[in-house]
């Protein structure tokens, strides 16, 4: 009697499918993470730009730059009683020597 050939996959075929599937999954996960990071960066940048506008208005009105913590513009006339913070981390923005508002977590 002749033995019939067995049907199924070899170990090498199964391993190849697993490696290809894992590679596709890793690539897919990376693409899902990037839009969130871009949104965080954009949100922080827009908050910095808004605060920069208030700093420039303060300089126009007083002819002086505010301190690095920008406490001087925490009034109803400028930024409101509470200064905006980084929307991602909640940390305070800083005013650099160059007169630009910056975020330690999201550098330009």
TrEMBL record:
<keyword id="KW-1133">Transmembrane helix</keyword>
<protein>
    <submittedName>
        <fullName>DNA transport machinery (Exogenous DNA-binding protein)</fullName>
    </submittedName>
</protein>
<feature type="transmembrane region" description="Helical">
    <location>
        <begin position="12"/>
        <end position="32"/>
    </location>
</feature>
<dbReference type="InterPro" id="IPR012902">
    <property type="entry name" value="N_methyl_site"/>
</dbReference>
<keyword id="KW-0812">Transmembrane</keyword>
<dbReference type="InterPro" id="IPR045584">
    <property type="entry name" value="Pilin-like"/>
</dbReference>
<keyword id="KW-0238">DNA-binding</keyword>
<keyword id="KW-0472">Membrane</keyword>
<dbReference type="GO" id="GO:0003677">
    <property type="term" value="F:DNA binding"/>
</dbReference>
<dbReference type="Pfam" id="PF07963">
    <property type="entry name" value="N_methyl"/>
</dbReference>
